[in-house]
Design brief:
By secondary structure, the chain is an alpha/beta fold. It is built from 12 helices and 20 strands. Helix 7 runs antiparallel to helix 8 and helix 9 runs antiparallel to helix 10.
Amino acid sequence: MALLVQKFGGSSVADAEKILSVARRVAASADGNQLVVVVSAMGRTTDGLLTLARQIAASPDPREMDMLLSTGEQVTIGLLAMALQSLGLKARSFTGPQVGLRTDRSHTQARITQIDADRLRRALDDGEIAVVAGFQGLSDLDEITTLGRGGSDLTAVALAAALKADVCEIYTDVDGVYTTDPNVVPSARKIDRISYEGMLELAASGARVLQLRSVEYARRNNVRLNVRSSFTDEEGTWVVEEDEPGMEQALISGVALDVEEAKVTLEEVPDRPGIAASIFKAVAADGINVDMIVQNVSHEGKTDVSFTVPREDLPRLERLLTGVVKDVGAFRFSTDGDIAKISLVGAGMKSHPGVAADMFDALASEGVNIEMISTSSIRISCVVRAADAERAVQAIHTRFGLDGGPGGDGR
């Protein structure tokens, strides 16, 4: 008997008909297996709740936002449990707090601190299918918290780790992880297998298939992930250890596009020890994640510092930087939301010289200017103008032989 954790995203449970379809898919997996099913809120419910909150208050209280947003998943679990029961299956719904998912006190972006899965184990031992609300937990103050955008992926992976599940299946509206977004490049290929490291870089670079924190959690706890479609029976993409038998050794795994970032520049920053620390400590204290950072060469004791942040954080950051500029003695700051980040990801590039040169040449051949560059051992990221983004992705995707046909070997 296998223990499976299955997660269904919002598009998979968008209406009553789709919830019934999910129930039938779960039922097909139930014979001889123990099942935990984690679900998101229906369709665009969370976005609708966010819009509603902002109609009430310009800056809603984070605690009350968590109280509001956690209701979306509770609707889904009740309906899916009813659907499973209508098929003659034993099923019970649980909220995040009811399955012992504990978090820190960071409302709207909470981190998991522990899971007491005893109640889930008892339900499974009693032959029940456990239907669990994703995205939510309970702090040590017994306050409802949420895990941030895509948090249902994290809930599923964390429960799979706590229960030592055989596999965690992530069901979405696509049939796996692709070499790039098929909506941007129709010739993109599905990747059959990808390492945790490769998936981490893709997720961090803007690929929306899996939440970044869920991949980190899976790697840390060796949870095998299978990303697959809610609407077909195709196997999807396996996210596994790099040295697992059958693992592809691709030079390039894919090209990620992130259009949700903005660039911030502090001009004429005093070039002396401790200034960078002062700037980024202030940003971190406000809970804003910084991605790429570039500091120009110093001239006459002054330098410019540029970095990228999530575009949705710009209003908070602009208020913060007004004080930071004064505190560090900079001249001024500017923001630019009309950018995109393009990232080339592949474990094979560690041992292949010339990958960066080929990427830059592909962009140059399309007349695309590069504004910022950052690298890791398996990733090269460039900031370009948003208007050039899709053309740039296509050029890079083609240059590295990722177009066409099934398989996704990236060679």
